[in-house]
Amino acid sequence: MNNPFIISFGKKPSQYISRINLSEEIIEDFNSDNPSSQAYMLVGVRGVGKTVMLSSISKTLKEQPGWIVMELNPTRDLLESFAAKLYALPEMNSLFIEAKLDLSLLGIGISIDKGIKISDIEQAITSMLEITTKKNKKILITIDEVTVNQYMREFASAFQIIIRNDFPLFMIMSGLFDNINSLQNDKSLTFLYRTPKIALSALNISAIVNTYQRVFSAKAEDAKYMAQLTNGYPFAFQVLGHLVWKYREENPDYNVKEICDEVLNEYDQILQEYVYEKIWNEMSAKEREIVACACKEDSIKVKTIRDILGYDSNSFTVYRNRLIKKGILTSTGYGTLSVFLPRFDAFVVNMF
Ligand SMILES: Nc1ncnc2c1ncn2[C@@H]1O[C@H](COP(=O)(O)OP(=O)(O)OP(=O)(O)O)[C@@H](O)[C@H]1O
Ligand SMILES: [Mg+2]
Fold first, then answer.
1. Which of these, 122, 157, 334, 343, is most buried using a 10 Å CB contact count?
2. pLDDT digits (tens, 9 = 90+) for 71-95
3. Could you tell me which of 323, 329, 337, 37 has the C-alpha nearest to residue 178?
4. Which protein residues have a CB closer than 5 Å to ligand 2 (ion)?
5. In CATH, what number is assigned to the domain containing residue 52?
């Protein structure tokens, strides 16, 4: 049998632990008669499952009647790609032509005899949306790995105007905290400021235990030991599953707990090479110092970190909040913190 766990990013894994509450929250809202928001943002640290969740919501809505789902690439001209994709929709294209929408000046489609020549991209989109809306179609746009660039600004401000006109247009963006944050704080994009953010964090630990127990026919306590090594971090859940599966094929007599200890070095190495180095490089020097200090204990008192690094309460709170929002630190109770990324301590010791 093939290894059921995958190490690659972005693909829906076959051992998938659903985040039903979070996805349902968005799907139900989008499907309601009066959605509380037509846009959402998924935010979280690398490897936490933003792309996987985005694809899973897209897939669910694609399968529901009346929904059209489109994925846009944030490094390309978003308005142009949106217009082009909309125009090219097989179920819509003939209706646009029937309505004599001529977008050839924009480089989209063919020129139409006695057609309505449109040269403004937002106008083109609005005209097409009038038609899709009449056909009771709802459109979801997904944009993964958003960054702040001119395309994103233009697109967001057009989106803002479109939804003000009551079109059933929806959007889910996903990205790292820093990118989502600068997008939201961009003064020209006030509506994004109010767009709800959904923070992705650990997967449900019992669900991880159950999956490991089932896949490896392991004892509950062994599966629990294994799950604890992942701390609920989705990428780690896949990596550890993958390694244990591989080791077990060659050594069928070992139990899961013994195998975990055998593969620990390789586990650390993959986490480091695939994500931790990147995450580390994206942190500021001060953030690194704080996270390294937090690695000293499983759950460390804020006061201990402050005393060691010499921060006063106010300035420390700024860093603390930021690291929590980035999904790197977790607040574990009154005045204590822990590092969310499993075995990050083993990585950090090599970085200083
Ligand atoms: N719900 C889930 N259940 C099980 N595994 C998951 C789940 N979500 C994500 N994973 C696994 O975690 C890894 C990272 O997922 P994904 O690529 O979605 O992360 P990401 O947040 O988009 O990361 P990045 O910020 O680097 O793009 C993948 O190996 C994926 O298989
Ligand atoms: Mg991703």
1. 343
2. 999 999 999 999 999 999 999 999 9
3. 323
4. 50-51
5. 3.40.50.300
